[in-house]
Amino acid sequence: MSIAQEPATVLDGKALAKQIEQDLRARVDTIKAKTGRTPSLATILVGDDPASATYVRMKGNACKRVGMDSIRVEMPSATTTKELMAKIDELNNDPDVHGILLQHPVPAHIDERACFEQIDLAKDVDGVTCLGFGRMAMQQSAYGSCTPQGIMHLLAHHDIELSGKEAVVVGRSAILGKPMAMMLLNANCTVTMCHSKTQDLAAHIKRADIVVGAVGVPELIKAEWIKKGAVVVDAGFHPTDNGGVGDIELTGVESIASAYTPVPGGVGPMTINTLIRQTVEAAEKSAGLDIS
Questions:
Q1: Active-site option among 12, 69, 87, 103
Q2: Is 103 a catalytic residue?
Q3: Is a pLDDT exceeding 60 seen at residue 134?
Q4: Active site annotation includes 59
Q5: pLDDT tens across 69-91, in order?
Q6: One domain, residues 222 and 257
Q7: Are residues 246 and 214 in the same domain?
Q8: Of residues 126, 209, 234, 247, which has the active-site annotation?
């Protein structure tokens, strides 16, 4: 007689983010009391993409919840690369700004990578610079890209064992797939990166102890490919009439996986939470109050 599997653990990012915000509020109060300054995140929005505007507003709301200041910088669609880099320099040199976020994507005529690189490493709280990525990969001090860093925090909170596990990351973007793979490698996983040119994606998924969907294609990864007892992390979100789906087909996964992130409410809240947490850390370091 087969033994019934334990119910899968739901990796609830929304609940964890709320819990972490209580700690961040206390840390912000300490910074204010000891320095007279309020930790501040500058968000730069270029153009009028409605989804980007929504994300920037959500980040501003998260700042308010922990008592931080949010400086919203809005620039027209016609902004040049040179003008955007000059604005980033201005924020780099402002002692009242502790973190800088350039909302992705910027209009196509702007060299986004050059603008990311203009952000001072000490204020790169979104983890988008090449130097920050390299330092993170080499296990030196740097702020990690927010989504993968948030995923690592969520896995650690739930005591998910990583060392020696087979991890498959589907997607190779500069701010999600690549840093995710490096973080898992640094946690002693054996990591396979899959992408649009990967042959027989299902075969890779079927042997994975940990699956991270970070490819940006709705339900590309099928539930039937998931190995029994695997940990399933879905970093995708695609709006639908019923709320939304991720990159992984989650219907049926709860009876296969040992743990999984819901969509929505799993990875998304941890991304914004990590941005806020890293801005608080930057403010602490700037004030000589580093307690991390």
A1: 103
A2: yes
A3: yes
A4: yes
A5: 999 999 999 999 999 999 999 99
A6: yes
A7: yes
A8: 126
